[in-house]
Amino acid sequence: MKKIFLVVFLFTLITSKAQKLAVTDTGQEVILYDDGTWKYKDKSDVEKEIPTNSKKFKKNDKSTFLLKSNKFNVGFWLNTKKWSFKKATNNEEAEYELQLKNGDLYGLMITEKTSIPLKTLKSIALENAKSVAPDITVVKEEYRTVNGSKVLLMQMNGTMQGIKVSYYGYYFSNNNGTLQFLTYTSQNLLSDYIDEIEDLLNGFIETK
Questions:
Q1: Which of 33, 93, 100, 139 is the most exposed place for a label (fewest CB within 10 A)?
Q2: CB burial of residue 123 (10 Å; 0-12, 13-18, 19+)
Q3: Is 130 helix (H, G, I), strand (E, B) or coil?
Q4: Is this structure's pTM higher than 0.90?
Q5: What are the structural domain ranges in the chain?
Q6: Per DSSP, which regions of 161-198 are E strands?
Q7: Fold adopted by 52-206
């Protein structure tokens, strides 16, 4: 996934009539009017309210090793009997890469010293994912409280180099920076690994 960057909302005109059809950089079709107003061509493109999960999520008692970010005050507790980790080498934008031992489940901790609102971060993450999986779609999203901090959970499904993949992760931002804490695997394996994924993600904390 590319490094987080601020996306400017641009229209690309594709007709020159009084009512102009345009597309945004997120692929949504809109109709532009001469008086400066606009509306979505497809009402389903209107941004939906993201639900909030009332459950309070906490780290697993077996997650006893704290891995901290070197960029800002976040980290996560993990179970080293289940997970191996190393400084990122395959993804230059990530701090750490993880793998479930003896499994086809992987993780990334991507950090940025830029504070970005969660709703904006959602759009950025989706656009970045489209750069590697053009058919990517959000199939689940909700706000959660994890160890006292508000995060955005998103599951995105898409096809990358012919492989159907699922990204399942937490997105977080505070005054010191922004985090993408992601896991990924093939779509057919996600349900098999969901408990391991949740245990890993729920190790997330803001550090002092």
A1: 33
A2: middle
A3: helix
A4: no
A5: 11-45, 52-206
A6: 163-174, 177-186
A7: Protein Transport Mog1p; Chain A (3.40.1000)
